[in-house]
Amino acid sequence: MAIQQGFFEILSDCIINYITRYLNTASIDGIYYIDDQKNDDILPLEKPQNLVREVKPLRFEKEVFSIDGSSRSFISGKGIVSIASVAVTSTSSSIYDVYPSVDGKSKLGLNEPFIAVAASNLESSKLDPYLFSNNYISSVSLSGEPFNPLNGFENIESELRSLLETKALSKLKDKGYIIVDGPLFPSYLYLNGKVKDKIISERIKIIDSNFIGIVKRIDKSQYLVKSLNGEYRKYFVQKFKLDPKSFISDESLLLNLIRFNYNIPYSPIVIGPFLDRVKENINVYINYLVVPFNPYIANFFILRVETLNNNSDIIEKILSLKPTKDGIPYNLALADLTAKKLSAGLYKLIILYLQQLGLQSSFYSRLEVIKS
User: Fold this and answer.
1) Which of 94, 224, 232, 346 is the most buried (most CB within 10 A)?
2) Would 28 be classed as within a structural domain?
3) What residues does the NurA domain cover (predicted)?
4) How far apart (Å, rounded) are the C-alpha atoms in residues 102 and 52?
5) Distance between CA 229 and CA 37 in Å, rounded?
């Protein structure tokens, strides 16, 4: 007679005997591979045997600022109202500056639009944007055309937030090290080519060797698995018993690399540098930092660190920054949280005013209020 199992017994049995075994399997005989093709844009800069190494913390000798932005949109039958905020933290004063601020003052001297408006009446929007825009409200895109709600709120939000963040970066230049949340030169997926090119060109003028990009989410990143070709792929197979091409992301490759090749006590590991060429022959140097939360527990956080100079000291200095429980440098996490809280407060306030004037919010906007 078959023994019946309850829900919890079945779930426990599945996790122990199937799911964890399946996910922990690391084989160089896998069927699915990313093509082993030359990638001229992403190149390892060290010999295979020097690409993976242990590192120790090194203190920053200058002030360190962290910056992040946030944005939200109110959607109604009459159009879209997007708002954006930016927060800057520092190692000496926690929250260094926020924009927009309650008292209207800004240490960085920001005086930029933080609200964007797109009217649903396309005929009237051809004239109205130029009449109703001011220092804090924008109705016209960098492309020279009025914001169009048909392009989606993501497009408007992305442009507004990107411009605000880029302006804040220009104000921080030469003040110390500046940590940017995300790549130094983002892909700006929601922006059209003309707007994207203008923002990237502006960032190229601003960003120098004191700027550091930290990418927190690499579950979809494939820099490593695409660049480890030829002798590098061969070395990983022989040395670490891992074929980079059998992994779907850099995160999965790195976690398997550490778990199956290093022992307790775990030490911070850096993989890199790699060279990524972006627009106008700008070279970005990329390193992956894998750090244990505890030297005696196989639990790690991974950061992709981007700089404009090939200096290993920067990676060691990032290690000296206090991390949160999620593995993000504390001040960067504080900038992220502050920017989100500020945009949430602005969002609720704007919705209150607009609804008092008779604008009914969409279902999306009502959900945003609940989430914020």
Assistant:
1) 224
2) no
3) 62-341
4) 47
5) 7
Q: Which of 4, 22, 35, 59 is nearest to 246 (CA)?
A: 35
Q: How many domains, the chain?
A: 1
Residue 226 has pLDDT above 60, yes or no: yes
Can you give the three-state secondary structure of the chain, one letter per residue? CCCCCCHHHHHHHHHHHHHHHHHHCCCCCCCCCCCCCCCCCEEECCCHHHCEEECCCCCCCCCEEEEEEEEEEEEECCEEEEEEEEEEEECCCEEEEEECCCCCCCCCCCCCCCEEEEECCHHHHCCHHHHHCCCCEECECCCCCECCHHHCHHHHHHHHHHHHHHHHHHHHCCCCEEEEECCCCCCCCCCCHHHHHHHHHHHHHHCCCCEEEEECCCCCCCHHHHHCCHHHHHHHHHHHCCCHHHCCCHHHHHHHHHHHHCCCCCCCEEEEEEEEEEHHHEEEEEEEEEEEEECCEEEEEEEEEEECCCCHHHHHHHHCCCECCCCCEHHHHHHHHHHHHHHHHHHHHHHHHHHHCCCCECHHHHHHHHHC
Q: Which class for 360: exposed (0-12), middle (13-18), buried (19 or more C-beta within 10 A)?
A: exposed
CA 319 to chain centroid, in Å, comes to: 18
> Is residue 149 within 8 Å of residue 119, measured between CB atoms?
yes
* pTM: predicted TM-score of the whole model, two decimal places: 0.83
Give per-residue pLDDT as tens, 251-297.
999 999 998 899 999 999 999 899 988 766 789 999 999 999 999 99
Cα radius of gyration rounded to whole Å, the chain: 24
Assigned domain for 262 exists: no
The verdict on residue 119 lying in a domain is: yes
- How does the average pLDDT of the chain come out, rounded? 81
Domain containing 90 equals 64-215+331-371
Least confident of 30-44, 67-81, 198-212: 30-44
